[in-house]
Design a protein that fits this description.
Elements lengths: L4 H15 L3 H6 L2 H15 L10 E3 L10 E5 L2 E8 L9 H13 L4 E5 L3 E6 L11 E6 L7 H4 L4 H6 L1 H9 L8 H23 L7 H23 L6 H8 L5 H16 L18 H11 L15 H12 L26 H4 L7 H19 L9 E3 L6 H17 L29 H5 L12 H13 L1 E5 L2 H14 L13 E3 L8 H8 L11 H4 L1 H4 L6 E6 L11 H10 L10 H11 E12 L9 H7 L3 E7 L13 E7 L6 E6 L8 H8 L1 E4 L13 H13 L3 H4 L4 E3 L6 H4 E3 H10 L7 E5 L14 E4 L5 H6 L5 H8 L1 H8 L2 H6 L23 E5 L8 E3 L5 E2 L3 E4 L4 H7 L2 H9 L3 H5 L6
Parallel strand pairs: 3-4, 7-8, 7-10, 8-9, 10-11, 12-14, 18-22
Antiparallel strand pairs: 1-2, 2-3, 4-5, 5-6, 11-13, 12-13, 14-15, 16-23, 17-19, 18-19, 20-21, 20-23
Length: 915
């Protein structure tokens, strides 16, 4: 993309204006005047809206090492800019290092340094000791026009298109340094393991459980991160590293505990109150010393961590990964030694297993803007009746942090406490000196030039009081994971950590199961004697001030409920849900109940915003939810289709915005076709259409518009539903409940048959959904160990020792499976014995000619198993009909159109979503 003529003309005028200045006039410009008259107008010519803080934001001056501005697209920083006065020596390493370090800590690739006379672009991801080795481009004012194509890489449209990144990939062969989030995560995981080992070893005689030890580890790490953040924000002296370097071996631990007591006295936060961790023997100090050293500088010594610069969003992503590591006391998994000491970090992600994925920033921002920001615009903020925001599955707190920011900005404006325009220079400090760490000095070199002296953060006691009020009165969160609750509290505390003042206790961020509540007798009915393990959460008791108000309920509810498949919910919960939720269906996924529960907690007129899987619109299990939603006030549905909104998973998400009100005639619908937009709100506004709510069919919702809807109607009227055509012979794939045990590769199959020829009888060709390609032969690389429910009893005759019989008759397969015995025993998808698969009435259908299809595909993706020998996983389906005419029809463009537009399950949509 070439720069437009208007850009050329504007930059030409700026260059002429600059060259017309005499040397004396240039020397008279200070930094603020330089950026106002030249640098920011240069970026205005590059299509940035310098008057919009959502695009060009002044960075808060909360620590040493800040820069002036960040440039954002869709709320995400694309590069940072540090400006200097005209004539400043941009070749001083400290200026470049300052910009590079800031960008790195913000998770941003690019840093720009400019006094307008020159402009330097640095790649903050390069691992270089000399910052100028990370310099990507240097362009002088005389080259702005001849090299405009390179300068254009910093334009808004080029940043959106990733032009600068592509140029860097062409020439860069240097080793990139680990991104800040990954570096910190790697460190945290290693420190967690070290602390766990140490605490477990030194407290073995106290019989503490692994969970108690792990909770203590997290509390200790949270304290250290909080302390380092306070130090980097210049609110506390750098005492942590001083303890390491100055205290004798026997003095260190008492001094560290004393430091925690000091911080408790200052901040009065739950974080430093006497806790279980304070009762533990902390062992040898070397481990803690190494961790504190690591918090000061990264593992590779490539960068000194500056926690004042690390955004809550970055820390949230780090902690979501961190929470994914499961600490287990089960020696069978090789996690603990005989002494009970953690040896290896587990590979399975606990949070992923729980269906929890970190929500992208642009989604969080959009949902909060469409709910909370809209609510505030409609009703304002009254401290006598504060706006209350809830995330019922808050995780590390990303939605609550964004809600806090929106509330804080709104209330600050309402009270006349908002910050100045980004282009307005910060005022000089009153008085000659100021020892407060609130007012960080800029560099000595800049101060000598008379530049930046007295620059300060605008944060004062009014801001502290306002933010404390918001955190205590407005922000509510619940999560069933205790560690997630602790992380959310820490992240919110860090948002308010700007003064050496008492911090809120955050008692409204609580642990519990948002979906389960009731008295002891009722819960015992559903969950038995161990009902307390469900950690039920009684909303009317826990948040009585909210629910007992008139009218009761929350003003805004936002979130990303867990993506938990129904197969893992358990029969106890399903029995409970059947009686408690109008949206219940036996195969409904967990988010279904979160939607209903959230709406029940809203006050009249309140707004709801979730991102959930979109399968409820078309799956059979979604029919009760669809019927229920038609009785609600739907404001908007944004459907992302199969776009990879969550990089960690294919979730087919949609954003659902509701209001606690009577249904309306129409609501807004947006079908998102790309993630390459600069702003989701603008994208949605330009592409939205209106859907008539009363016209929606409980059997399935279509979001297709006008002409497309008409074509779909023609398809329906002209043809026969697929289910009817194949005599309802459409079947799920096999659910093993433990693929690691029962799904094997070709090499393992050969080995088992070589050891015992009879193994062949129980091994079947097997495909996953992703193996199925349009018209292509099915691959031979996977196989299924198939022992159906009831098969063992039927075969073993009068023998009473089922496992003994199986091991004797199929020794190779028994030997393979035995290492999975514990996990196989725990699964729900098992037969009479742990080595058997669940009951299935249609196993015989897999051994007939059939059509096979995946459950997820971008287009119609059907193929033929002509020999009738393949079984498929639950990520696929089979159609009990080998008709080649049918295969051709199903793979046609017309059916692809129908599948992509339609929301009815097995009539047209089969192959793309489960019915």
């Amino acid at each position: 993309m070439m720069p437009p003529q208007t850009t050329y003309d504007q930059i030409e005028r700026l260059v002429k204006k600059f060259k017309a200045l005499s040397t004396r006039e240039r020397n008279a410009y200070n930094e603020a005047e330089t950026r106002k008259s030249f640098v920011l107008p240069l970026f205005h010519a590059l299509e940035w809206n310098i008057d919009d803080a959502r695009e060009v934001a002044a960075e808060e001056k909360i620590s040493r090492g800040y820069v002036d501005f960040s440039f954002r697209v869709n709320g995400v920083r694309r590069f940072v800019l540090e400006t200097k006065r005209i004539g400043e020596d941009l070749n001083k390493p400290e200026w470049a290092q300052q910009a590079i370090d800031y960008a790195y800590h913000k998770g941003v690739t690019w840093a720009v340094l400019s006094d307008f006379e020159a402009l330097k672009i640095f790649n903050a991801e390069m691992r270089e000791q000399n910052p100028f080795h990370a310099q990507f481009r240097s362009i002088g004012v005389d080259e702005y026009l001849p090299r405009l194509d390179e300068l254009w890489w910093l334009s808004r449209s080029a940043m959106l298109a990733g032009a600068l990144d592509r140029e860097a990939e062409k020439i860069s062969k240097k080793m990139p340094r680990t991104p800040i989030a990954q570096a910190l995560f790697d460190n945290l995981l290693e420190w967690r393991k070290q602390l766990y080992n140490m605490l477990r070893a030194y407290n073995r005689d106290k019989l503490w459980s692994p969970k108690q030890i792990d909770d203590a580890v997290q509390r200790l790490l949270d304290r250290l991160i909080f302390t380092r953040t306070a130090e980097d924000r210049l609110m506390e002296d750098e005492k942590l590293i001083a303890l390491v370097r100055e205290k004798r071996h026997d003095e260190f631990l008492p001094a560290l505990k004393n430091r925690f007591r000091e911080l408790d006295a200052v901040y009065n936060s739950q974080l430093f109150r006497p806790d279980f961790v304070d009762t533990l023997e902390l062992g040898e100090p070397d481990t803690l010393k190494q961790i504190i050293e690591g918090l000061d500088r990264s593992k590779t010594n490539a960068v000194r961590y500056n926690f004042a610069l690390i955004d809550a969003d970055v820390l949230g992503r780090v902690y979501e990964q961190y929470l994914g590591a499961v600490v287990s006391d089960e020696t069978r998994r090789g996690v603990l030694s005989r002494g009970g000491v953690l040896l290896n970090a587990p590979t399975k992600s606990k949070r992923k297993a729980q269906g929890i994925y970190y929500t992208p920033t642009f989604v969080v921002r959009y949902i909060v803007q469409q709910t909370l920001a809209r609510y505030l615009d409609e009703r304002g903020y009254n401290p006598a009746r504060p706006v209350r925001v809830l995330d019922p599955a808050c995780g590390s707190g990303s939605f609550l942090i964004e809600a806090f920011d929106v509330l804080d900005q709104f209330v600050a404006r309402q009270r006349g406490q908002d910050r100045p325009n980004p282009l307005t220079p910060f005022p000089k400090r009153e008085g000659g000196t100021d020892d407060s760490p609130l007012h960080p000095e800029r560099s000595a070199a800049e101060s000598k030039e008379g530049e930046g002296q007295g620059e300060r953060s605008y944060y004062d006691i009014r801001d502290h009081a306002r933010q404390r009020e918001i955190l205590e009165q407005c922000i509510y969160g619940v999560d069933k994971d205790e560690q997630a609750v602790e992380v959310a509290r820490l992240n919110l505390l860090l948002k308010a950590l700007h003064l050496r003042e008492k911090l809120p206790t955050l008692k409204n961020i609580r642990c519990g199961d948002s979906l389960v509540s009731g008295d002891a007798r009722e819960l015992e009915k559903y969950f038995g004697a161990h009902w307390r393990e469900k950690n039920p959460f009684d909303w009317r008791v826990e948040f009585d001030n909210v629910m007992a108000a008139s009218p009761g309920g929350f003003d805004v509810i936002v979130g990303n409920p867990p993506y938990v498949r129904q197969e893992t919910l358990g029969e106890e919960f399903k029995t409970y849900a059947k009686e408690k939720f109008a949206t219940y269906a036996g195969t409904a996924d967990l988010y279904t109940y979160f939607i209903e529960r959230a709406m029940s907690l809203l006050k009249p007129g309140g707004l709801f915003g979730f991102i959930v899987a979109n399968k409820w619109m078309r799956a059979n299990y979604g029919e009760p939810l669809r019927h229920w939603l038609k009785q609600q006030c739907i404001e908007e549905i944004i459907d992302f289709g199969d776009l990879p909104v969550f990089q960690q998973a294919t979730t087919y998400p949609c954003i659902l915005i509701l209001r606690k009100d009577a249904p309306r005639q129409t609501f807004s619908v947006v079908k998102v076709e790309t993630l390459e937009f600069d702003n989701l709100a603008n994208y949605a506004r330009e592409r939205q259409s209106q859907m008539t709510q009363t016209a929606l069919d409980d059997k399935g919702w279509s979001l297709a518009e006008g002409q497309a809807q008409g074509l779909l109607e023609k398809i329906r009227k002209a043809g026969v539903p697929l289910g009817e055509y194949v005599e309802e012979k459409i079947f799920f794939g096999v659910k093993t409940g433990l693929n690691d045990a029962f799904v094997i590769d070709a090499k393992t199959r050969a080995k088992l048959i070589a050891e015992d020829r009879k193994s062949k009888d129980l091994i079947k060709p097997f495909v996953m959904g992703r193996d199925v390609k349009r018209y292509e032969p099915l691959p031979h690389n996977r196989h299924l160990i198939l022992v159906p429910k009831g098969w063992t009893r039927e075969q073993m005759g009068k023998s009473r020792d089922a496992w003994g019989w199986f091991k004797k008759n199929y020794p190779a397969i028994a030997k393979h499976l035995v290492s999975f015995a514990d996990d196989a025993e725990k699964r729900q998808d098992k037969g009479e014995y742990w080595w058997e698969l669940r009951a299935c009435a249609y196993y015989a259908e897999f051994e007939k000619p059939k059509i096979v299809l995946p459950d997820i595909a971008i287009r119609a993706n059907f193929t033929l198993d002509d020999d009738g020998k393949y079984y498929c996983a639950n990520t696929g389906y089979i159609i009990g009909n080998a008709d080649r005419y049918l295969l051709g029809v199903l793979n046609s463009s017309l059916i692809t159109f129908g599948c992509n537009s339609q929301t009815v399950s097995t009539d047209v949509r089969i192959g793309f979503d489960k019915g």
